[in-house]
Write a structure and sequence with these properties.
This protein is α/β, with parallel strands linked by helices. The chain is built from twelve helices and eleven strands.
Amino acid sequence: MGLDRRQIIATLVMSGAGVRGALAQADYPARPIRIIVGFAAGGAPDALARIFAEKLQQRWGQPVTVENRVGAQGNTAMAAVAKAEADGYTLALMPIGNAAVNPTLFPNLPYDPVRDFAPISQLASVENALVVAANSPIRSMAELVALGRAKTTPLTYASPGAGSLAHLAAELLARSAGFEMTHVPYRGVAPALTDVLRGDVTMIVAQLSTAKPLIDGGQLRALAVASPERSKALPQVPTLTEATGIAGLEAVSWYALMAPAGTPDAIVTKTQQAVAEVLRAPDMVAALEAQGARPIGSTPAELAAVIAADIARWGKVIREAGIQPN
């Protein structure tokens, strides 16, 4: 039986759409791209996004802009990207919190980082350090753990908010080392650090990009870094595992580039390859290091595996500690 006229027309239309789709992918990017950031301009996520936007714009010859959508700890912005057209022209700078912490922390999260996104690449990581005021009597991790276990001196730790990586890292340390500390949440890192500096709170786990100037200025003392290995920025400071003998205390902040689910593989691959080339450039490495970050890079599959592992890891801490958002 031959095809009737309507079937022939439908087949031709579908074929034309397929050709147009393939051409659009081959020409990508053919118009401006926007990177959505869920935090205010001037912060670490925004600064990182703008560094990458500039380098990608130079490479592609198309405008790459950063759009800040502040609210709900970045969840509003991530939900907007999840609902955007999957054509590669709307991307997300996704921090570890939005990718791996919030799925457990928020029971009604308006997006799913696994189902609603196509991973492109990890971009960079920022190391964290456990710090106390420079005039604190606690001079080492051994002393901190001993005080905690002795239960003679109440210990407190600050964080920029309930469910932040600073909160989870301190909770993981206390539970793993067998002592208790009282959490003192703040609305942002600045007031949290202020009270640590004044001695009102014992300690905080803070990003080195924020803490190092205060360490260098003699206002804070770093007891350990929450990295798998010592930091090049603080080579004399041990890792948490070195200082306590307890494995699995790493808490590294990372950022990734994500696209809406359904974005064509060809566009994801092209973008990942561009990111990899940008990350290899010496000027990019220098720009990241100036922000207290270091390049990572990954394939989409590697990023997906990191997200899955961190959702499981930090989800366990959140459930066991009964952590609730602010």
